[in-house]
Amino acid sequence: MKILRPVLVSLAISTTSGLAVAQPPSGHGTHEASRHPGTTTAPYAGMQQREIKALSEQQMADLRAGKGLAMALPAELNGYPGPAHVLDLAAELKLSADQHHKTQMLFTRMQEEARTLGEQLIAAERQLDTLFRSRQAGPDTVAASTAAAAQLQGRLRATHLRYHLAMMDILTAEQVAMYQHIRGY
């Protein structure tokens, strides 16, 4: 169990937040340098070059694009389809013209909200990064900055989840079951 615990912690971190950057533990408790004399390995090596240390370029692009970043998994994996995937599967689900139109409208609104919140979240993460980079970080400023970022991430996640809920008013029970089957759930 001692070897498995770091793996489980890394998996928990990576699945609870689409923004968490979890690195698998290297060496399962052994130091890399001891396995390769003369070398040292840091799990975050290279990340110090990032514009915002806590976000990769791909994560920022996804936030700017309004992507879900797995934030709606509680809905998706419990039988609440998302608008983007419903549109992708429109033919297989045999959406009516009205269903397709309503789903497209939901998707468009979700994207607008998610993009706005994504930009705000990037700005909040940039502010936190700047506090540390400029050596202005202190207990109060870090608490305020992380609270702001967490609130935005919560609002973004709620946005994606809310639109999964809204899909239940558009699809029939048969379409929801078909969606789950097609998606492999």
From TrEMBL:
<feature type="signal peptide">
    <location>
        <begin position="1"/>
        <end position="22"/>
    </location>
</feature>
<protein>
    <recommendedName>
        <fullName>Periplasmic heavy metal sensor</fullName>
    </recommendedName>
</protein>
<keyword id="KW-0732">Signal</keyword>
<feature type="region of interest" description="Disordered">
    <location>
        <begin position="19"/>
        <end position="43"/>
    </location>
</feature>
